[in-house]
Design goal:
With 447 residues, this protein is of the alpha+beta class. It has 13 helices and 16 strands. The strands form three sheets. Strands 1, 2, 3, 4, 5 and 6 form a six-stranded mixed sheet that branches. Strands 7, 12, 13, 14, 15 and 16 form a six-stranded mixed sheet that branches. Helix 5 runs antiparallel to helix 6, helix 7 packs antiparallel against helix 9 (353-370) and helix 9 crosses helix 11. Bound molecules: glutamic acid (GLU) and magnesium ion. Magnesium ion is lined by residues 145, 147, 196, 203.
Amino acid sequence: MGPRAGETGAEPPRVTAARLGGAGVVGLALSFVDNAGIARVKGVPIARLADAAEQGVGMSPVFDTFLVDDSTTQGRWLGGPDGDLRLFPDLGRAVALAAQPGWAWAPADRYHQDGRPYAACQRQFAARTVARAAGHGLRLLAAYEVEWTVRREDGSLPTGGPAYGLHRLTDLSDYLRDLLTALDEQGLAVQQLHPEYAPGQFEVSVAAEDPVAAADTTVLVRHTVRAVSAAHGLRASFAPAVAPGGVGNGAHLHVSLWREGRNLLTGGPGRHGLREEGEAFLAGVLAELPALLAIGAPSPASYLRLVPSHWAGAHHCWGPENREAALRLVPGLPGRPETANAEVKCFDGAANPYLAVGAVIAAGLAGIEAGAVLPEEVGGDPSDRPGVPRLPQSLPESLAAFAASEVLREALGEVAHDTFAAVRRAEAQLLAGLDPEALIDATRWRY
Ligand code: GLU
Ligand code: MG
């Protein structure tokens, strides 16, 4: 069998197994992220690694119909107890986990037992959209920011330091040092680590990379944050909302678009240096944002976070360096065109990062195909500007836009589109009528 869709490594599985085994690894965790935005896992002893890489590991397709509370729903194509899939680790991303001695991790792609790609595999969806872009001569770089809030086991705050406060670095100095060390030992290119706005909130940002790798990286960053937190008697929440009325956890997605080594978001004749194709890509993303929200802000709790004046991007607009715009253009730094990118701010940590990046690329490609142009930009807080529309304010609203989006239906394919919508509908029903406190309680520790 040749290389599979998302496979990145060249090293033979037996060499990887020997290398990891030699480093004291006894178990490999293979994870994928389901339609509820939850990373699910199968573990194999290291002695089985080569076998797992060649034959895959069994796992039921029922997980694609799991909800945030581990109950299941039924889609038109998927759901129920029948069938089995093979999980193939991408050993190119296999890494010994610095904060979990004895364990290694690799992201997995899912295939049918007969070797056919599984239509609802989120990681392969992301890889397919990247390949589609490559077919047009386009390359993408992407990165997710990771925001989380920490609490002690008893729920109390381990730091009372102010927003962005140096104070928080002294309160949690060892924790944050261990986190930086672990991320670095795993080969992750951390750009920044800083306290965020909400009580006990922090953020890690990493360097941009291939979109599938960016989604893998965010899974690994979060897993590492969780492990280091546990080692320090802390719990990390990546949930969209952690306190009623408070600032929540975003999972902002940064993307840049390249042709022949040139960043299409800078150096052109358009507004803020946008080149024509770069603008069309962003216009495509902006146009699909209400539908993209079902993927990027997929929980009923997402809409507790997505409110104006919380830097969450609640308005349907774009603007250069505008932290209230759902789509923030980050023009390149002078003399550094590689830094120009766009940030999808309205996405949060309940999103499946593979679906989110794949869907954004698909929307951008649709914009290019249509020769779309961006509307007028918005500066300042759109709440103060009458006429700037809000994005959907509830999951049923964004789900209606998702159901109507031909761009996303076509990109995902019927099976993935239907199953994802079924899970979102069921979650909307499951959590309907809960007050903010109860909704937060139901989601706080799930992601
Ligand atoms: N925590 C904010 C959010 O919910 C984002 C703050 C920032 O701009 O980084 O997205
Ligand atoms: Mg932030």
